[in-house]
Design goal:
Mean pLDDT: 90
Number of domains: 2
Structural class: alpha+beta
Number of helices: 17
Number of strands: 21
CATH superfamily of the largest domain: Dipeptide-binding Protein, Domain 3
Largest sheet: 7 strands, mixed
Low-confidence stretches: 1-32
Helix content: 25-40%
């Protein structure tokens, strides 16, 4: 299974820590959407520009959040709760491989046409067709023959999705996937598409709001000048559940600017730049968005120092993560010594609560760091720590520079090694990761679905996105076993064991879990926040 980094999501995370000067905290918009009328209008912004309105080709969180409002999949995932979507009911075979969905005959497109089972067949085949070049085609590898179709080894018609009739869709999976409903309910790539509309517009499909039809609770009425306007879809099968009259999304790259817009009553919701959080003590709200920060180590052999396990462990034990969090994140993130987001669903509790992971102390351990360093120096044939010269590559903004400098100072003072900081553009960081053209590089991850596999697959040797070059046969075996294990508790234990291997091998350097602080107008109700694919879900929001 492979996946692609939410590039734009990571960019947002980096920007979110930039220093922000702010005015005296205000109340934001207080007029029920700031419209000056009785309309219920919700206005918010994103610091990451959406890349496409084509749900098949979505490639970042804002893409998915827009599609979540404009499309309706078989089910709808609202903050982890699975609700009926186009499918009014479904059955799962005893072996967990076959899902039979009965579609709601009242589910319609925005032009009044019935949404049919064949619309899902066409959409999913288009997703997996290599000619489409969908960035997130990997998400369809769960379907029978999905990977073979994606590689061009089988025709899209052989994908495990069949329309028995207009209202019956049969889906066959490659292997039992406990989180399948959660995934299709929050991943826009699983939404239906009208073949006649896609073929009518060709390469211009979804190029603007007029070149599409919509299956979801909202339609797009305008998209220009970095703004997107949404209104209720009058043909939506559950129209009565939609309370807002209009939603206005603005692309505002600078988080300081967005905060000022909120203070001026121009936005009803805004995330607070980290440096400004203290100014809103008692007025802000928080949620963990599932994003984790860490460094990749290049272990492909091109850097002998980082191919050395003891050196990687020395770097990990030398980092005081609590102090790092105070210096870099103003103490507002959650220091982390693991890879998998702790808030994911476990067996009976969260994954983190059930984990028995033995990891690096959050305060660091100088004695152990030096012990591992000395072992590494001996193995590398070095007589002095100063002979170790490493390059840390990160993005070219001030927050990224601060992250790198704090690590540089801790490694130098504790280990006596030399670390050079290399700042490049954000896109160049991603390119360097993919090409293995780095020694140490900043990275981050957010889950595509509510399962630890979404994080742990990054280090499987077979993954196209194993940018670190990590290879461990025991790890691969455990991860492979999780894909067929039907006992939930045993499966989770296998993933706990796999994550322990990553820690024991020093396969990466974890730093923090991201906590989002935000402001929202008091009149806005029923906005949902989630940690998989969608951070903010305003579909069922209302304004009092």
């Amino acid at each position: 299974m492979k996946k692609k980094v939410f590039a734009a999501l990571l960019a947002t995370a980096m920007v979110g820590t930039m220093l922000a000067g702010c005015s005296t905290p205000g109340s934001g918009g207080s007029d029920g959407g700031g419209s000056g009328s009785d309309e219920k209008v919700f206005r918010y912004s994103t610091s990451t520009e959406p890349t496409t309105l084509d749900p098949t080709k979505g490639n970042c969180i804002p893409d998915n959040e827009i599609a979540h409002a404009l499309t309706e999949s078989l089910v709808r995932n609202t903050g982890g709760d699975i609700e009926a979507g186009v499918a009014e009911s479904w059955e799962v075979s005893d072996d967990g491989l076959t899902y039979t969905f009965k579609l709601n005959p009242d589910a319609k497109w925005s032009d009044g046409e019935q949404i049919k089972a064949q619309d899902f067949v066409y959409s999913w085949q288009r997703l997996m067709d290599p000619d489409t070049a969908a960035p997130y085609a990997f998400i369809g590898e769960y379907l029978k023959n999905g990977l073979a179709v994606e590689k061009g080894e089988m025709d899209p018609s052989e994908l495990g999705v069949v329309a028995q009739d207009d209202t019956t869709l049969v889906v066959t999976l490659e292997r039992p996937t406990a989180y399948f409903l959660s995934m299709i309910g929050s991943s826009a790539q699983y939404a239906p598409l009208r073949q006649d509309i896609v073929e009518k517009y060709g390469s211009d499909f979804a190029a603007d709001y007029e070149k599409n039809v919509y299956s979801g609770p909202y339609v797009l009425t305008k998209s220009s000048d970095n703004q997107w306007f949404f209104e209720p879809n009058e043909e939506y099968w559950n129209r009565d559940a939609i309370k807002l009259d209009r939603v206005e999304l603005s692309y505002v790259q600078n988080p300081d600017t967005a905060l000022a817009m909120y203070e001026d009553g121009e936005l009803d919701y805004v995330t607070i730049p980290t440096a400004a959080i203290s100014s809103y003590d008692g007025k802000d709200n928080t949620f963990l968005n599932g994003n984790v920060d860490y460094f990749y180590f290049n272990m492909d052999g091109s850097c002998p120092e980082l191919a050395n396990k003891n050196m990687r462990l020395a770097l990990n034990y030398a980092l005081n993560r609590n102090e790092y969090n105070e210096l870099v994140n103003y103490g507002y993130y959650k220091p982390s010594n693991h890879l998998v987001f702790s808030g994911l669903t476990g067996v009976e509790k969260t994954y983190g609560e059930e984990s028995t992971l033995q990891s690096y102390p959050l305060d660091g351990d100088e004695a152990k760091a030096k012990e591992y360093l000395n072992a590494a120096l001996s193995e590398l044939g070095y007589s002095d720590p100063s002979q170790v010269k490493l390059t840390l590559t990160t993005s070219d903004n001030e927050s990224s520079k601060k992250q790198a400098e704090v690590c540089q100072e801790m490694w130098n003072s504790t280990l006596g090694i030399n670390v050079e900081i290399e700042q490049v553009t954000y896109n160049e960081v991603l390119t360097r990761q993919a090409d293995g053209d780095y020694q140490i590089v900043w990275a981050g991850w957010g889950s595509d679905y509510d399962d630890p596999y979404s994080y742990l697959e990054l280090f499987m040797s077979s993954s196209a996105y194993n940018y670190s070059g990590f290879k461990n046969d025991q790890y691969d075996a455990l991860m492979t076993a999780t894909q067929t294990e039907t006992d939930t508790a045993k499966r989770m234990d296998e993933m706990h064991q796999a994550e322990q291997i990553l820690i024991d091998e020093g396969a990466f350097l974890p730093q923090a879990e991201r906590e989002v602080h935000y402001l929202i107008d008091d009149d806005v109700k029923d906005v949902t926040f989630f940690y998989c694919s969608i951070n903010i879900d305003w579909v069922y929001a209302d304004i009092a």
